[in-house]
Amino acid sequence: MEVRTFARGFELSDAIESYLNERLDKVKRALGHLGSKESTNIEARFDKDGPYYTLRLLTHINGKDVVVQEKANDIYGVIDSACDSFDKAVRKERELYKSYHKSNVKGTIEAMAEELAPKYEIEDEEDKIENVRRIYLAHVNLEEAIAQMDVMGHQFFVFRNVDTGEINLIYKRNGKYGLIEFEE
């Protein structure tokens, strides 16, 4: 696994890169066999905007992007907080992968329910968006999508159909299901 670093607004020293690699070793261990693939890389983008440093960490695991972005006024502080958040996100994705591949539907549903917790809350009352949630697009067939929608108690469910490879939306109205297939 390779760590690619990029910096904008300042020069990245060898000490900072060394510290970042040291902190990301914990994440590499958390990836386990998922990180042993040649194609699994971690991208670290540093940005300096005034007195603040921003670090964005990105990796691609099992068809999903795991992205974490942190901001702090200390370069080592931003590395620490971003690596901790990134480790947590990677572990969460790994557990979801494990539960999905063990055919443990209950584990998958519980993991998805944790992801549905609001990630951001907007404080401005004039905005029409109450909260923002980031969820990953599930790769399931039609029957699994119906089962997940019913278990979660939602009126609709967006997923990528593994049979067709297209993004679909299934909804429930008057006790019956409807399916919307999107074309690109």
Structural topology:
Layout: E1 2-8, H1 14-31, E2 41-49, E3 52-61, E4 64-72, H2 75-101, H3 105-115, E5 120-121, E6 131-132, E7 138-140, H4 142-152, E8 156-161, E9 167-173, E10 176-181
Parallel strand pairs: 1-2, 7-8
Antiparallel strand pairs: 2-3, 3-4, 5-6, 8-9, 9-10
Name the beta content range: 25-35%
Read across the widest sheet, the strand sequence of neighbours is 1-2-3-4
Q: What is the count of helical runs?
A: 4
Q: SSE order in H/E notation?
A: EHEEEHHEEEHEEE
The radius of gyration over CA amounts to: 19 Å
Distance between the termini: 33 Å
What is the overall shape? elongated
Question: Quick check: average pLDDT?
Answer: 80
**Overall number of strands:** 10
Oligomer: single chain
Main beta-sheet annotation: 4 strands, mixed
From the helix content, strand content and strand pairing, which structural class follows? alpha+beta
Question: What do you see in this structure?
Answer:
This protein is an alpha+beta fold. Helices cover 36% and strands 33% of the residues. It has helices spanning 14-31, 75-101, 105-115, 142-152, and strands at 2-8, 41-49, 52-61, 64-72, 120-121, 131-132, 138-140, 156-161, 167-173, 176-181. A hairpin with a 5-residue loop joins strand 8 (156-161) and strand 9. It is elongated and about 60 Å long.
Sum this structure up briefly.
With 184 residues, the chain is of the alpha+beta class. It is built from four helices and ten strands. The strands form three sheets. Strands 1-2-3-4 form a four-stranded mixed beta sheet, covered by helices on one side.
